What does this fold into?
Amino acid sequence: GADVNATEESGFTPLHLSSKNGHKAVALLLLERGADLNVTNEQGFTPLHLSSMQGHRDVSLLLLDRGADLNVTTEKGFTPLHLSSQEGHQDVSLLFVERGADLNVTTEQGFTPLHLSSFNGHRDVSLLLLDRGADLNVTNEQGFTPLHLSSMQGHRDVSLLLLD
It folds into this structure.
């Protein structure tokens, strides 16, 4: 049969692609046939990074239940929680928080998940992170807090949340 862990030119395996596109049944089939859960592509993305970025909670849950590393980082230091927060996927972010994801982990440039949700105006994700204990005064390598970023981008609702 076909090589379940074969990679294309960017390093994507079939599990990367089924996870990115939210195909839980296919992801399960691939896992049952020996797909590597924590395989990375050229940028260090695992299947869990891709499912989280696209907001596929069911696939993310499957991967976690099968033993995917929740705090794995890409080459630039992004965890799955960074990506779900950046894209505003509250349900996926909640799943990761409930499973014990590090709320204050930073990327290479010093961004926390709260920095990314604030920059992109995702109030619900920002509220979730704050409620669960994210540090709202942490600074990135440029000295920006989440409030700096929400203010710079004109996100009044997120700025108000961070000020309260």
Notes: The mean pLDDT is 98.
